[in-house]
Design goal:
The protein has 175 residues and is of the alpha/beta class. Helix content is 44%, strand content 11%. The chain starts with 10 loop residues before the first helix and ends with a helix.
Length: 175
Amino acid sequence: MDEGSPPGEDFLAHVVSLWESEARNAQRWGTRAVLCRFGIVLGKKGGALANIVPYFKRYIGAPFGKGTQWFSWIHEKDLAEIILFLLMHTEIDGPVNCTAPHPVRNKEMTKILGEVLHRPTFLPGIPSFALRAALGQSADILVKGQRVLPIKLKAFGFGHRFPTLKQALENLLVF
């Protein structure tokens, strides 16, 4: 998906459409509206990794569902730099995908995370029904996934410090 792709039809897509519609109202007063669409944020002290890494450290890390769904992510430092970039480039408006340029499938994410943490990843995927029972509608983020690309950022010359998941995880998890 790029910035011009139509919205999905699930709960989260509906909420985001409402948010973006309200944000666009600022344009009535001549204000630029940049609609940042974040990938899953990977950080040292929180975000997705804080919830996932403990399982891998206990040797029970596994893919979500079948593991074929896309995992679109962004390193916390790249996200901060994207926001600064957008503030400086006033010619950019509308939707902007704030993701890394190389999304991966969930199985690949599991494998890379296991490699970086020096943990095996041999367990079968966590069943989708179990994730939905535990997380409700928010499980769709993990089970369905999206392949989101930062086309607009690339077109305006933004360069990611951590373009690959392995680079990002090595920076965040190797001390």
